[in-house]
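Quick illustration, no need to memorize.
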Amino acid sequence: MAGLFDLTGRRALVTGANTGLGQAIAVGLAGAGADIVAVGRSAPDETARMVSAAGRKVTAVSADLSSIEPIARVMAEAGPIDILVNNAGVIRRADSVAFTEADWDPVMDVNLKVAFFLSQAAARAWIAAGRGGKIIQVASMLSFQGGVRVPSYTAAKSGLAGLTKALANEWAAHGINVNAIAPGYFVTNNTEALRADPTRSRQILERIPAGRWGTPEDLAGVAVFLASAASDYMHGAVVPVDGGWLAR
């Protein structure tokens, strides 16, 4: 049974791996035996130390994923990979009546457009090589719900859930698993404003059956599962990791 979750000899590309959820996913995958390609704008020094401490290799690829321009270079510098985790994301908060194009476009570009074209690049390489792979999208509770004051984020994460299913339909026959993790309310930079608002933070905690905000490490096990042979018959799933939020 333990072998089902063994990632020894695999290479995982994780976007936004320098902090937060991406870092925890990268370190979790390394703990299961995978080498890591960490992609992001800033150097993943802390992540690299943690991956190295797990006995795995880390390759840092510097790229601004606000557009698809660097994707070909990212894939070339990464080299052959077995796992792709589309974690990089941004958020903008404003009343919808005041939302601007400048609030809309960057969120859609990073959270949805780049995720699609990175997935496409990985799938093209795997199909050409005649082998499968694992793609893990990082969705959100707002893949299921509307949210408040985050229209572009909600649209992007809802789109990412749909994209997960669409790509699974096309690529499952090639041995490519496309699934998504939908984190609930986690302690990350994206939720700093919510956690700093006493009223909103209390309202959120009152709804979470687990009674606490998630920590990035809470995602590691699910990421390992979706990256491993244990999930070989899963295609197009969006897996909530939310402390019971959706069950409330």
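Strands lie at 11-15, 35-40, 58-62, 83-86, 133-138, 176-183, 238-241.
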